[in-house]
Amino acid sequence: MNKCVFPVAVILVAGVLVGAVPAQDDLSVYVTPDTVPVRVLDATAAFEKLTAREKHYAHWMSVASWVGAVICFEQVSAESPAILELLLHVYSRDRVTLRKEATRRGVTDQELHWLDGYAARFLSNTGNYLSFGDSKFVPRVSPQKVGVVIDVAAHMGEKPDQRLLDLWTKTRFKIWSLERDERELGLDEIGTSGYYGEDVTQKEIERVKDAMQEAGMEAWNTRVFRRKLGGLTVRVASVRETGGSFIHASGSDAILIQYGDFKDVLTKVNEAFEMAYHYAANDDQRKMIREYIAHFRSGSIDQHKDAMRAWVKDKGPVVETNLGFIETYRDPMHVRAEWEGLVAIVNKEQSAKFGVLVDSAEKYIPRLPWPKEFEHDVFKRPDFTSLEVLCFANGGIPAGINIPNYDEIRQNEGFKNVSLGNVLRGSGKSKSRVMYIGDEDQGLYKELRNQAFEVQVGLHELLGHGSGKLLMETAAGKLNFDRNMLNPLTGERVKSWYKPGQTWGSQFGRIASSWEECRAEAVGIYLCTEADILKIFHHQGREGEDITYVNWLSMARAGLAALPFYNPNSKAWGQAHMQGRYALLRVMMEAGEGFVEIAKNSEGHYLVRMDRSKINSVGRPAIGKFLRKLNILKATANVTEGQKLYAKYTAVDEKMLGIRSYGQKQRKPRHLWVQPVTDISASGKVILRAYPGTYRGVIDSFLDRYDFLLN
Questions:
Q1: Cβ contacts of residue 110 below 8 Å, gap of 6+?
Q2: Catalytic one among 111, 461, 516, 517?
Q3: Rounded to an integer, what distance in angstroms lies between the CA atom of residue 225 and that of residue 227?
Q4: For residues 307 and 636, what is the distance between their CA atoms, to the nearest angstrom?
């Protein structure tokens, strides 16, 4: 990749040497904050209600999840696996002795605390780039002081730990380096990515996409690198290690397909699956596990799809799971998926309200602003449960999920929705001032934002991600729509659709993830105005109106809060959800009539002002019109018009750049999660280890998960 060609200066940020960087750039935003909040993901009560068999099943699926999550570190950046091993080696030492010797050599307790903060942040994000934002973060403590800690740790045994010293030599520059092409996840001179070799260009990746599409291959579990002798290699994640087959695209060189990426990790994943198989509750779960094992052994996406088919059929399990290469958010091209492992326990009481929402879904879907021809032919009643998360093996935990992501399964066989209850509860109520909210709304906003968010998550997942039909043509030339149907945006016959081998992700590429999150968020605010829907969540009358207002205000606020995730140098967004929320803010502002305005108060703080009396008369029609476009353009595979539309509403002008600068200065660090760890006691019982909400709690939890990496 191209390095920085601007005048450079070696600078110190918060006392930390951060390397040679453009003198005019403010790199303090990349330094790990002095304090990062840590939240505890508590699943103890739900776990204790499980039977012994269910606990064993949950344990082995958790082992598979976290072993697989080692892959995440390698998908994030080339240096992250070595940093992971480095930190595990350091923190496996006796902490009392390490602290005593390090402080004797001039390292302060504050600096050790800063190192703890970096380590916890790195582990929680499964790499040295934020999972929510895609920007790099570096330690607050200097490399010189960390070097002292490393040296102490390496000499605590009978003989020097040469492996630890070698890891330090390998990583010590990369940990702090902030060259222009290292600050964000991206391609070419814009950023870096573990999905691609550093010398692989975006144009080459596009050619790989075309070749894979022609060969009938999907990219979910792949990475792309350059061969030593020239040409490109597509590495496929699998236990089976083979190579030598080639694919071609028109006008491009042959591309090698090589199986065996992450071979050692996936071997361990399958070993855990084999143990879990003995504790599965039913035939659907056993079928799912068999297909998982076959998929990870062979690398065949079709076998993972078969696992998802069995998973969709497994209605209402006590222990819910989902594993594999699932979401594409962190791939700059948004086609290759990150490892993800979910193990959770169903909360039957909390699930009841979502069950009512599902039961009524066929009544609510026709209220969405598009013709029935653009909706699924038959509504396949999905599971929608509230879960107590036992483990989410990935760099970031969402509040809700709608999966699987395979278009043909979602359309023809169904999907599941989950709301992650202990994640939602973990946020609690903040006493501090909420940015961008006026004094008159602070109290109401703090009081109701969690309840409003629960409504939004339910509508977002079930009726957002769960709605909308893709117009598709099969390999046999059969269409899943009437060829004479009209496009409501043009009044003419539909002219475009998804051809064989094409998917929503492959066609819309880099904007697909954000577009879909924007569409789902729009559905949430569009339908939360309906009194009968609010009643399902036990909100009626004035309280229901307040929930609607807070939900809309929260979305507008989120649009402003999204601005720090925009990079003005690359003109790229670092987070799919935030880009989508910014687009919705722009739509609200464009609606006019004083509905939503951005103001600056006498203290210099930016505020979002919303006239709640105009939500139904001004805001909802504007969002409905935009939502209609989002859905129809997606359904008809109209990439050209889709790109124009989304570029318009996600563009950041000078005024918004000013608010972005304000937001960066005021922004608070995103919290970390400390998750429990399952284990088997000497007596053969499955136990649950809980950890405190501290940096060391996060670190200790990963030491317990990844002790096998130290052997």
A1: none
A2: 461
A3: 7
A4: 29
CA 73, CA 123: separation in Å to the nearest integer? 9
- Tell how far CA 508 is from the center of its chain: 18
- DSSP label of 429: -
Within its chain, how far is the Cα of 398 from the centroid? Answer: 7
The number of residues in the chain equals 711
Domains recognised in the chain with CATH numbers = 1-30 (no CATH), 266-666 (3.30.540.30)
Residue 107 phi/psi, 5-degree rounding, is -85, 130
The CA angle 395-400-404, to the nearest 5 degrees, is: 85
Please state the pTM of the whole predicted model. 0.90
d(CA 263, CA 248): 25
Q: How far is CA 253 from CA 214, 259, 309, 502, in A?
A: 14, 19, 36, 22
What six digits make up the tokens of 158?
A: 């009978």
The more confidently predicted of residues 183 and 428 is 183
- Bridge partner list, 243: 258
CB 418 within 8 A of CB 389: no
Quickly tell me which residue has 């987070």 as its tokens.
Answer: 575
Is the separation of the CB atoms in 60 and 276 below 8 Å? yes
From residue 23, give the alpha-carbon distance in Å to each of 10, 110, 139: 8, 28, 20
Say which residues have a Cβ less than 8 Å from residue 28's Cβ, sequence separation at least 6.
13, 14
Angstrom distance (rounded) from CA 320 to CA 344: 5
d(CA 297, CA 238): 5
pLDDT tens-digit map of 153-189:
999 999 999 999 999 999 999 999 999 999 999 998 8
Lookup: tokens for 289? 């596990």
Is the Cβ–Cβ distance between 697 and 38 less than 8 Å? yes
Task: Label residue 598 exposed, middle or buried (CB < 10 Å: 0-12, 13-18, 19+).
Answer: middle
Is 461 in the active site? yes
CB-based contact 319:344 (threshold 8 Å): yes
Q: How far is CA 646 from CA 89, 203, 446, 639, 640, in A?
A: 46, 22, 31, 10, 10
Structure tokens at 711: 């052997």
Round to whole Å and give the CA distance between 669 and 101.
Answer: 31
Q: Which residues make Cβ contacts (< 8 Å) with residue 603, sequence separation at least 6?
A: none
- Tell me, what amino acid is at 97? T
Q: Give the whole-angstrom CA distance, residue 541 versus residue 483.
A: 45
687 φ, ψ (degrees, to nearest 5): -120, 160
CA–CA separation, 711 and 697 (whole Å): 22
| CB neighbour list of residue 349: distance below 8 Å, 6 or more residues apart | none
The 3-state DSSP class for residue 18 equals strand
* pLDDT (mean) for 540-548: 97
- Residue 647's CB is within 10 A of a number of other CB atoms, namely 11
Report whether pLDDT(19) > 60: no
